[in-house]
C-alpha cells in the first residue's frame, strides 16, 4: 500500500470509531464497569484521535541522506542514506483499564508504519477490541493485517511474547508481567516496548494559588477511572502549612463521588473491573490499617454487591508501608506533608517507578526546577491527566521502555537501514 493510501485508511478508522461512539462507549462500560458517560467523552474520542493523528504521519516517515567521510578510503565517493522500515509482525498485549484506548494507542502507530499486528486484549475486557477489529476491516484494511486474539495472559499472551515469528512485542500492564515479557522475548531477541505501572507523586506547594483547583486536580488525579490508571496520582505530597486543608478538601471530594453501575447516567465511579481487583484493593486497604495509617475517608468495600470500593484518602503513612510503595490500582491515595522543596524531590523520586508526576505552584522558576528534577516520563504542572495523541507517554525506571504517542512512537515500530552506494 502507498503511504498515502495507508494514511487515508487509518484516518477512516478514526472516523468509524467516532461514528460508533455511543456503541463503543456502552460496550466499554458493560465490559469494564467504567461510567458510559466517561467512556463517551474520554476513551472513545481519544481512541479516534490517535488514528487521526497517526494518519498524517503515514506520508512522513523519512530517512536521511548522510554525508560520509570513510577515512580509510581516500578519494572514494559514496552516496549514503537511511530507510525507515516496518519491523514486521508485531505482538501487542493490553490491559483492561482503558481497553479501547490501549488498543488504539497500540494499533494506530503499528499500522501507520506498515506493520502487521496480533493484538491480545485482557481477558476481562475483550469486547471493544473485537468491535474495533470489525471496524478496521470495514475501513478497508486487508484481512490478516490486524488479528485480534482473545485468551489468557499465561497462554495466549505468553505464546505471543515468546513466538519466534513475532518480531516485536508491545506490552502495557503490570511491571511484574513486563519482566516476564522481557524474559520471554529473549528467545529470538524480539524488540520490546513496555508501558508499566506507577506510583506517581502529586506535589502541592503552598504557593499553588487557587487551592480549590489544586484540590480538585488532586482528586481527579487519583479517582479518575476508579484509580485504575497507570499514572494515577496515588502519592499526594502537600506542603505542611496547607496539608490539613488539602487533605480535608480531597476527602470532601471523595465523599461526594456518586458510586453506581457504569450504565447509570449519574454514575461518577463504577465498580472495579473484577472480583480479583476488588480483593487486591481491599487487601491493601486492610494492610494500611494494620500498619497504623489514618483513614480520613473510605477504606473499605462499598455495599455488598458488585466490585465497588469507597474512594479513600489516607494520612499518617510511613515510607516503608506497602500502600506507599506499591501500585494499588484503585481509588486510594496516601497523603504526606513536607516542609521544603529540597526535601520533597528525593522523596517523590524514592520509588522504583517513574511514569508521571504532578506539581502545583504559581512560581514559574520553581515549576521548571522541580519538573526537571522529577524522574518521571510526564510531569503535569497545575494540571493532571492531560493526554494528547501528539504528546509522548511512557516511563522512567521500572515504568517502562519507550514512548507511546507523539512522533516518538514511530521509532518503536520502525527500524533503520543504512544504504551505502559506491559512486
Ligand atoms: P497484567 O499485567 O497481568 O495484565 C496485562 C495484560 O498482560 C493482560 O492482557 C494479561 O492477560 C497479560 N498477561 C498476563 N500474564 C501474562 C504472561 N505471562 N505473558 C503474556 N501476557 C500476560 O495485569 P492484571 O490484569 O493482572 O492486573 C494486576 C495489576 O497490574 C493491577 O492491579 C495493576 O497494579 C497492574 N496493572 C497495571 C496496568 C498499567 O497500565 N500500568 C494495567 C493493568 C494492570 P490476561 O489478564 O488476559 O490473562
Would you write up a description of this structure?
By secondary structure, the chain is an alpha/beta fold. 40% of the residues lie in helices and 18% in strands. It has helices spanning 3-19, 21-32, 36-57, 99-112, 127-139, 153-162, 175-185, 211-223, 243-256, 275-290, 322-325, 341-349, 364-373, 409-412; strands at 78-86, 89-93, 116-120, 146-148, 168-172, 191-195, 201-204, 235-239, 294-297, 312-315, 332-338, 356-360, 378-381, 400-401, 414-422. A seven-stranded mixed β-sheet has the order 9-10-11-8-7-12-13, sandwiched between helices. It has a six-stranded mixed β-sheet with strand order 4-3-2-5-6-14, sandwiched between helices. β12, α13 and β13 form a beta-alpha-beta unit. α1 (3-19) packs across α5 (127-139), α3 runs parallel beside α4 (99-112) and α8 crosses α9 (243-256). The chain binds NADPH dihydro-nicotinamide-adenine-dinucleotide phosphate. NADPH dihydro-nicotinamide-adenine-dinucleotide phosphate binds next to α6, α7 and α10.
Summarize the model shown.
This protein is α/β, with parallel strands linked by helices. 40% of the residues lie in helices and 18% in strands.
**Rg measurement, Å:** 23 Å
* Major beta sheet summary: 7 strands, mixed
- Please tell me the overall pLDDT: 98
Number of helices: 14
Biggest sheet strand line-up: 9-10-11-8-7-12-13
How many strand units? 15
Question: What gap, in angstroms, lies between the N and C termini?
Answer: 31 Å
The low-confidence runs, each spanning 5 or more residues with pLDDT under 50, are: none
Bound molecules: NADPH dihydro-nicotinamide-adenine-dinucleotide phosphate
* Basic shape: globular
Strand content: 15-25%
Structural class: alpha/beta
Oligomer: single chain
- Helix and strand pattern: HHHEEHEHEHEHEEHEHHEEHEHEHEEHE
Percent in helix: 25-40%
